[in-house]
Amino acid sequence: MRRLILLRHAKTESDAPSGKDHDRRLDDRGREDAAAIGGWLIGQQLRPELVLVSSAVRAQQTWAIVGDQIPADAPQPNVAHLAELYSATPATMLGILREVPGHPQLILLIGHNPGLHELALGLSCSKGGTEHKPLPGNMPTAAVAVIDFAIKHWGDASFGGGRLTQYMTPKLLKAPHGH
Question: What's 138's domain CATH number?
Fold first, then answer.
């Protein structure tokens, strides 16, 4: 089995000082949400072996905060900073996953909408089976979708080949039933 964690970057400022979308930074709520989601991931024993993170500042900052939640004495993941994840299509992201070197069981991919939400929908839209959890209509900032694949190699990952097993957002975490 292989497991993919899709994480949308946390909430950002409206505009970057540079005026470039790529340079937008996390705002206070974004930093708080990233820490909360990082804590949830660790609490769920979802510790990635490989992290694929967009080169955008907001994605990098999200990973820095989430990664800080991993205990110092725990195995640390390999991290790849990929410019091609910025504004990537679902097909591009699937192609990146299929070419992952080695055999990590658990990958965390940090990216952007609309591509990330579309990827989650595409990977987990398998035929039939009421055990499949529905993915909500959007993926808000700092939302997590965990998708499991009954495959031995990432090269075999395909659209419709995964199953959504967990979904969490900062808002759901704050709800009384969030933990």
Answer: 3.40.50.1240
